[in-house]
Amino acid sequence: MSEKNPFGLFVTHEFSESADYNRVFEYLESRENFFYLNYSDPEGVPANSSPDVLQEEIRRQVKNAEAVVVPASMLGDASGLIDFELNVAQAFNKPIVMIQPFGATMSIPKQALEIAAEVVEWDERQITDGIRRAARGEDTAKWDVVEFDLSGLDLDSADD
Q: pTM (2 decimals)?
């Protein structure tokens, strides 16, 4: 993945920017060498538009995305738009990356867990790795190296 081949993403919204919607992009931006195109447009149509207009705009936004990112705290919204966005993602065979609720104790509904390709925590590495795996099947196995200072240890006496 490079600047020339960014991930196409749709982040769920209700035609308004919520704290979790904005937080997703803060986390994505904090990851070096992760490039994406945002196909979600919360300001795409006025919120007082007819349901048909809103649904058509959602279809248009999801269609070009490689993956749909869902902050789980947005599930069960009163308007039903998030559920519709998930249905559209499934209809277009878009993998869904579900992000656990941020700092909350709510549980993700079983139906949402079943349709998610990935369920990740609010962590920039987990989110971007989840997107890489779900959208393109990329292997994201990374190892953290921990070096220990052994200079003060007498390792020869351990053999006795």
A: 0.82
